[in-house]
Amino acid sequence: MKKIIITAALFSFAFFYSQKNQNYLEVGYASICCGPPSEKPVVSYLKEFKRKNRVKSLEILMQSRLGREGEYKLYIGTDFLSKNQKSRLIRGLMATVSNQNNNKQQPNKGNVNFDPEIIVSQSDLTDAKNLTIYKK
User: Fold this and answer.
1) For residue 15, what are the CA distances in angstroms to 11, 12, 18, 48, 135?
2) Hey, what's the torsion of the CAs at 56, 19, 72, 102, to 10 degrees?
3) CA-only gyration radius of the chain, Å
4) Per DSSP, what are the bridge partners of residue 60?
5) Cα separation values, 17 from 10, 14, 79, 103, Å
6) Could you give the CA distance from residue 87 to residue 81 in angstroms, rounded to a whole number?
7) Around Cβ 116, how many Cβ atoms within 10 Å?
8) Residue 27: is it exposed, middle or buried by C-beta count within 10 angstroms (0-12/13-18/19+)?
9) Nearest 5°: phi and psi at 133?
10) CA–CA separation, 7 and 28 (whole Å)
11) CA distance 107 to 79
12) Predicted model pTM
């Protein structure tokens, strides 16, 4: 019986404290009429940023089902980045989002929203529904 309780306590501890980041950048995907745009340009930039800057792990969370047309948000953890890396990440995200919004093939496709001044804390995300770890 003690082994079961200890094992359950260990798993619950690991589950509740697995998220390390406390601060996140928010990238929102809005829809105008025909669904939100793809997250592929932003995610490919994040993968390239991770490779170039030798970042071991970059935590990305996804909050889905925010509207009728499939709107969603990505949250990018920034606590394990240096100030220089964080500023480069923000500049690159701004350029990627701006490029994606300006080069839409369909003018009625949704927009990508990113404001570097908005920092979302982990306490804000604890009550968020449909929040998952982004894996692709």
Assistant:
1) 6, 5, 5, 29, 17
2) -30
3) 17
4) 76
5) 11, 5, 15, 40
6) 9
7) 14
8) buried
9) -80, 130
10) 39
11) 36
12) 0.80
Kindly list the distances between the CA atom of residue 89 and the CA atoms of 6, 69, 81, 96, 115, in Å, as whole numbers in the listed order: 41, 29, 9, 10, 13
Helix (H, G, I), strand (E, B) or coil at 132: strand
Structure tokens at 64: 């889905």
Residue showing tokens 């690991």 = 14
Q: Give the model confidence (pLDDT) of 78-131 as tens digits.
A: 988 999 999 999 999 999 999 999 988 777 788 999 999 999 988 888 888 888
Kind and range of the H or E run holding 131:
strand 131-133
Both structure tokens of 30: 């809005």
Residue with tokens 């570097």: 116
